[in-house]
Design brief:
This protein is of the alpha/beta class. Helix content is 43%, strand content 15%.
Length: 344
């Protein structure tokens, strides 16, 4: 058990630029900016986008462009990738893209890296062409990217201009134990996708901490956990709103993806026993309820796992309800547990 409390940790946002039924992709981007400004005002530390392709409800495929859009229209919140799927790209091109972003928005850009394709295999082949084994070179590609961003590469035959010499934090992202080993060996911060891959979460962060080697980037392990969050005034309202994300995950499991659907009165109308079990397992690390409920459940999660930062991803159909969810989540983290216990 960890001695950490919710007051000790940072809180951030993962945005998949989720496209909502009845609205356009342009609406999605404008709502992302509105949400980022809202998160900045509420004290969130970071606002990250994740690279995905060929998914009808996810519009964050051009991740670097969205990062620039958000960073250019906010003032202080860090903006970055959660993550860039490096095997889809040349390390040099990513160094140049993020070097450009860091030059335009100094001290505000994060570079999270993953090895998954962020898509199906057919789409990955369309992106990578003949380079379908790129994931096997992920550790070498991360090292190459670090070299391009290093000031020591000034005499290299290939240089990242801009990018060279810029202090852009690199994170390793993961949904399995392989990424944990790499993050530990390289002495980099580690962000785990517990919002959809809960099965390996505890094992992965244990491997990361046990094998961590201090580096010039980080002197001790730093774990960020991404979790699903739906906050509302009451537990009942939050459960109702959460039927949108449950429908979304059911689409992932069944292969019948749709745009984010409106909430429904009961999931019993749309799923069977198998779908329910599979969805609820994927959503194991989800915090749904009032801010008091979320505070209680998240306090236990933080104490049990000792995470340093929580990244919330929220799939709520109504934009104003989504903004409210992020406000209530921020308030839940700041609740005084002594006052809360006295009121119960």
């Amino acid at each position: 058990m960890s001695s950490k409390s919710l007051q000790d940790i940072s809180y951030s946002v993962l945005d998949l630029a989720t496209v909502v039924e009845g609205y356009s992709i342009a609406d999605t981007y404008h709502n992302s900016l509105d949400n980022a400004r809202h998160a900045e005002a509420l004290g969130y530390s970071r606002y990250w986008f994740a690279e995905h392709h060929n998914m009808i409800s996810v519009a964050s495929s051009a991740t670097s462009l969205l990062i620039g859009y958000i960073a250019g229209n906010t003032e202080k919140i860090r903006v970055g990738s959660g993550g860039i799927m490096l095997p889809n790209h040349s390390p040099l091109v990513i160094a140049e893209q993020f070097g450009t972003l860091e030059t335009l928005y100094p001290g505000r850009i994060d570079l999270g890296l993953g090895r998954a394709p962020g898509s199906d295999q057919i789409t990955a082949q369309a992106i990578r062409g003949q380079n379908m084994n790129a994931a096997f070179y992920f550790p070498k590609d991360v090292a190459a990217l670090q070299t391009y961003l290093s000031a020591n590469n000034y005499d290299g035959k290939v240089r990242a201009i801009p990018g060279e010499g810029l202090n852009i934090p690199i994170w390793i992202l993961g949904s399995s134990t392989d990424s944990a080993k790499l993050a530990a060996a390289m002495g980099l911060p580690y962000a785990f996708a517990s919002h959809f891959a809960p099965a390996y979460f505890k094992e992965a962060i244990a491997i990361y901490r046990d094998n961590f080697i201090p580096s010039v980037h980080l002197d001790k392990p730093y774990v960020m956990a991404c979790v699903n969050v739906v906050a509302a005034e009451s537990d009942e309202e939050a459960e109702y709103l959460s039927t949108s994300v449950k429908q979304m995950f059911m689409g992932i499991i069944t292969g019948k993806r749709k745009l984010l659907q409106p909430p429904i009165k009961s999931m019993e109308e749309v799923w069977g026993v198998f779908e329910e079990g599979a969805v609820m397992e994927m959503l194991r690390y989800s915090f749904i309820g009032s801010k008091e409920t979320i505070h209680s459940k998240l306090s236990s999660f933080v104490k049990e796992n000792g995470v340093d930062e929580i990244m919330a991803t929220t799939h709520v159909y109504n934009h104003q309800a989504k903004l409210k969810s992020f406000r209530l989540f921020a308030e839940a983290l700041k609740l005084n547990p002594l006052v809360l216990s006295q009121n119960q």
